[in-house]
Input
Amino acid sequence: MTIRSLPAVGILLVAVAVTAGCGGGDADPSSAAPTPSSSSAPAATGLPSAPTPSAAPPNASASGAASPAAPPSVAPQGPTQRRPASPPPVVLPKRPTGAPGATQVVNAFKAAGLKVPHPKDRSVDCGPDGLGLGCSELIATDAVTVYVFPDEISASDIAETWGGQSYRRGAVVLNYLEAKTPAGDRPRYEKVLNGLG
Output
């Protein structure tokens, strides 16, 4: 045997090993998979061996020849669902009938000559994405924050939580926690609120 014929002999040995590993005469394809010890064992000839298949093709015939494999089927996908660009609007509970709205209270303060600088409608903070207080309306100013709740029980609970830093009349709560209102001016705001009916 010459040196030139060694590669041909090596290829022949690999082909024989692959054919033997595919379970030449076995009908059960699961028994054709090489064992871990046989796939990691080096070839006896010292030549590099070709990778062996991890399992016999499922459509191998009894003679060991494999028929062409069908391409894997891809399930058709429906249209991609897109999320809305902005979150859905927060639905707040309605204020009780007869209770003044937060804007109405702030306008009454203005009409009475009381300071309500920089009013901001922050009603969205009443919802679960904000403070989660469950209020219906919320107007914040630098002097006082006006909350309107859907019922008097909710308003009372919040007013008690804020202690001496709030005033409640019906479903409306005035909050002084973040305000710059001097304590001496607070009764004037409360008197205007009481006059709203």
